Amino acid sequence: MIRFENVGLRYGMGPEILKDLSFSVEPQSFQFLTGPSGAGKTSLIRMLFMSLRPTRGLIKVFDRDISLIGKNELPELRRKIGVVFQDFRLLDHLTTYENVALPLRVIGREESDYRADVVELLKWVGLGERMHALPPVLSGGEKQRAAIARALITRPDVLLADEPTGNVDPPLAKRLLRLFMELNKLGTSVVIATHDIALLEQVDARRMVLADGRLEIFD
Q1: ABC transporter domain: from which residue to which, for each copy (predicted)?
Q2: Bridge-partner residues for 58, per DSSP?
């Protein structure tokens, strides 16, 4: 579904922060991306989502070379990928419910078709009582859960999550991990960037470890 070949990344004229990355995200796979703070996990997630282009190397997403994809084609391709960024990116003027439903509205779905699904997902992530609240009054953990629900609502082909349990307590972290695992069983490939060792130990999954700009994979 996603393939990297000898990918390198540098910002400006600085040194390469990611070097010779070669790996694939296979259909229906589950993997953790881990490594120390500052290793480049977020930059790698952004390249997987095609919001950051590599300095060199080849990236193919759904068999498309991203260097040959025009800007007008990117939105449709990105709709196949759900992403949870650390800064949440919720719209402050929309309620929790409206933020989660937004990807469905963008593709033209009628609310009568999706309302029950959005409400059910909000209840699952513990936001059933907060669906009419605006983001400025939500806690960090609530914003995190809203961002996760928004990424999941379209049942994407690939889910990318950058520290998705960083602002929640351990019991809720376990519940969210189960949600990711259930989504994976339904066919979604999952990539979770985390430095939470307790989370890693709960699933027997592939680990991609970033250190000193290079990637080591443990299947």
Answers
A1: 2-217
A2: 5
Query: Whole-angstrom distance between the N-terminal and C-terminal Cα of the chain?
Result: 18
For β-strands 2-10 and 16-25, DSSP reports them as antiparallel
- CA-to-CA dists, residue 169 to 20, 67, 68, 173, 184, angstroms: 36, 40, 43, 6, 23
pLDDT in tens, 97-144: 999 999 999 888 999 999 999 999 999 888 999 999 999 999 988 998
DSSP labels, 19-88: EEEEEEE-TT-EEEEE-STTSSHHHHHHHHTTSS--SEEEEEETTEEGGG--TTTHHHHHTTEEEE-TT-
Contact predicate 169/198, CB 8 Å: no
Domain 2-218 homologous superfamily, CATH: P-loop containing nucleotide triphosphate hydrolases (3.40.50.300)
Of 162, 212, 170, residue with least CA distance to 191? 162
Domain ranges of the chain: 2-218
Residue 48 pLDDT grade (very low, low, confident, very high; cuts 50, 70, 90): very high
Q: What's the CA gap between 204 and 19, in Å, rounded?
A: 27
